[in-house]
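#struct-pred

JT: dropping the chains for the assembly here, can someone run the whole complex?
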Amino acid sequence: MMDPILVTNNVLDGLLMGLLYSLVALGLALIFGVMDIINFAHGDFVMIGAYTAWLLAMAFWVDPSVTAIITVPLFFIIGIGIYKLVIEPVLGAEPLIQIAVTVGLGYVFQNIALALWHAEPKSFPAPWLNFSISAGGITLSVAKLIAGGISIISLYLIHYMLTKTKFGLAVRATSANREVAPLMGINVKKVYAITFGIGTALTALGAALYMSWGQTNPYLGQSFSLLSWVIVAMGGLGGVIGVLYSGLIVGVLEALGSTFITPSARLAVVYLAFFLLLWFRPRGLFARR
Amino acid sequence: MASMLELKNVHAGYGEFRVLHGVNMRVDKGEIVALVGPNGAGKTTTLRTILNMTTRYEGEIKFQGRDITRIPTHKIVEEGITMVPEGRGIFNPLTVYENLLAGAYTKRAQEKIEDSLEFVFSLFPRLKERKNQIAGTLSGGEAQMLAIARALMARPTLLMFDEPSLGLAPKIVLEVFDVVVKLRDSGVTVLIVEQHVKNSLEVADRAYVMEMGQIVLEGEGKALLKDERLKKAYLII
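RK: done, full complex below.
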């Protein structure tokens, strides 16, 4: 029999991780929604972000989550640079070329990480937040609680930006019809660049929070990519709220699968549930009709 | 008096695919100018070329005396030209109100946003009723009204219409032409591309007939209505 306290603990753990996954996946959803490009390197941005957080944490001897103050603006600028150099030239190109470009970008990141830091995992040896609090048999990691809290605040801020600001209106108008948006006076290329910057900055934020307890290796990006795709595929049509719900579901499934089946099957559990969902809702959780 | 918009020997198309072969035309302040012609003649391409949305190989486009041939589309809108696109191009997931706000994105429009809203709601009271409705749920006629209202929010000096009557019921087509005349009378200069040749020539002050990427005939709207060649080609069916 499953222990109800263990199940509850896993669900709560999964919800916290789900918030972090939603944050990372939102970056992918924004980029896909606005410019119709699937960024296959998205998870690898998280991986590079994790190494950057680790390097800064080691250099300044602070908790990796604190380094987000530097890595988030830095990755915003890096994102815009990569957009200009790599993405903008292939905007009108065949999907296959776009796929090759972002997949290639991911491998470049992986190779750079392998060359610089080799395959063995890196983590910050003296994290401030890596302890737990317990109550009534439930034990939760403080680092994950903080990561979840910052994630949900960030999701809200992005939601606010999209629905309440002039730039957000430009983003949604461009996403709805990129041919017509320029007729409003919207500079579509600028919207693309900033959106890619924001999407990349979100990976850096997710990575810095994750490094408060996690460790990174050159292949960290794969699981973040896989989880982001499934979250966006399930919930992307529902905007920020859709991504949030979908991320929470994925987080819980992953936690339960990891504990009650086996940790190595956690992604399989998530994807099997996704395939099952598609039988009933082939266009995801939030498709209208 | 100098023309508001002037095209001189404009050659343009899409990449290698040339559509316009030396177009010369002008639009004066306060006019309704119609651009008519068969499918594939290059009418839409002409409008898109004015907005720098095509590949231009040769020629010059001047707006209010200024060369705009190398200015990006969004900045041309800031200069005071905009277009009601073919097929309306409504932002479906956004509300009616958000569509209108998007229309007023430019600096020139931002200052006058309240005035503009009042003006478009008086012109199209239905849109006011449906302000908070998702634009994708509007009927075809309402969506066309929204597309026109959204373009007006940009406070254009020159408003271009690309096939505004496409896919609309005959009664609504007449409404659209009524609106075009009203706008001209309120001081907006209009360039309209239409397949409804008769309707557009009736409201137009001047008109150009386009064939195979060139202007083949020009004159006053009502005079062209009586032109034998045009009658043969379009009107008597």
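JT: nice. Chain B touches chain A through 27 residues (CB under 8 Å). The beta strands of chain B are 5-14, 17-27, 32-36, 55-63, 66-67, 81-84, 158-162, 189-194, 206-211, 214-220.
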